[in-house]
Design goal:
The chain has 142 residues and is of the alpha/beta class. It contains 3 helices and 7 strands, in the order αββββαβαββ. It starts with 19 loop residues before the first helix and ends with a strand.
């Protein structure tokens, strides 16, 4: 007696859904969200009351530029990024940035109550190191 070991054919089509691309997309979105959340948290971790400017003087930044933030607090203390630095440490850090092929744009965030002399000290250090790409952050008035 001969046996037939074939599986019976089913009338239903077999449908496979490849979800690998969807999983990759989900992980990529998660990574982007984590990076953006970290950067925005670092930027807002130093509370500073920015000076005001009129709406007509605002300019847009080049999206390919890299930025480094120098914060001047009301008591005159300085921060580079989220790290507190002295003037000597700032000068050493700026010297390393000056050696880069394309130095970053330096955003100066100064408290509105800070003495102008602190801003002049920071600008002098930038000038000594040949760094001329500077932005001064302000708030928009009314």
């Amino acid at each position: 007696m001969a046996r037939n070991f074939r599986r019976p054919r089913s009338a239903q089509p077999i449908a496979d859904l490849n979800v690998t691309n969807l999983i990759d997309l989900g992980f990529m979105l998660l990574i982007i969200f984590m990076v953006v959340a970290t950067v925005s948290k670092q930027e807002q971790s130093l509370p500073v009351s920015l000076p005001l400017e009129s709406k007509s003087l605002q300019t847009k930044a080049d999206p390919t530029d890299k930025f480094e933030t120098i914060t001047i607090k009301s008591d005159g203390s300085l921060s580079l990024g989220s790290k507190s630095v002295t003037v000597a440490q700032l000068s050493r850090e700026l010297a390393t940035f000056a050696k880069l092929p394309k130095p970053p744009v330096f955003r100066i965030r100064g408290d509105a109550k800070a003495v102008l002399q602190y801003l002049v000290v920071v600008l002098d250090e930038l000038k000594k190191n040949g760094l001329s790409r500077i932005m001064i952050d302000t708030q928009v008035s009314g």
